[in-house]
Amino acid sequence: MSHFISAAELQSQLNKVVIFDCRFNLGNKTLGNEQYRVGHIPGAYYLDLEKDLSSPVSKHGGRHPLPDADIFSQKMRACGVNSHTTIVVYDDSRMAYAARTWWLLRYFGHQQVLILNGGFAAWVNNGGAQDRREPASKNGNFKATPQSDWALSREDILQDDGKLLLIDSREAKRYRGEEEPIDPIAGHIPGAVNYLWQDATTEQGFIKPLTDQQERWKNLPQQENLIVYCGSGVTACVNLLSLEMSGINAKLYPGSWSDWCSYQLQD
Prior knowledge:
Elements: E1 4-5, H1 7-11, E2 18-21, H2 31-38, E3 45-46, H3 69-78, E4 87-90, H4 96-107, E5 113-116, H5 119-125, H6 154-158, E6 165-168, H7 172-175, E7 193-194, H8 210-217, E8 226-229, H9 236-245, E9 251-252, H10 256-264
Helix pairs in contact: 4-9
């Protein structure tokens, strides 16, 4: 199954899929929902990164811990998601939040997920209609079945005997510890290599060709036992998408740097 759907393809399939608007802004956490209410793809439901795609923050676990399986299931059922539903997700942030949703749905056992290539802008630029109405609640039968081996914890990483390779998806300055705009401590997990998540897409939010994705990863020191992280387990999912496109398996450290450095604060 392809990972993507074009705006033109989506226009012809609006009544055959469940659509999720995943727009979000870390600097203004209500902006995504405000944008959704101004205009969204007809029939799309809104998923909030922190309310729907994450669980509440605690002392450890990072800024965006994975959501509770039962609560996530309830949300999906209310949006009419069934076991065989094809889902389309989109954002306006070079797939950052759409990829989180793509990965999360698959982590919870739902494989039929497509990302709108080019995001909301591609829909608008292709002449797609917009709606301000929120779809009615429905009754799907979605039931989350977590793929526990898709994600690793800090403890798993600490117990590594040298087999794991960690991929840090953040900007180089954050990786090097030269600046840290979000988390209280700068730096990276020892031994991690740096691959910026934005390199998987164009500035317009389209995925780069498969040859570009494969070129990104050709110099990895190894292609097994890969763990991808970022600041809080969100943008790392764009790298997971790129790796999967390239035929390389990798797992997510959901807590990412925000979880890792939370333990340094107590030392």
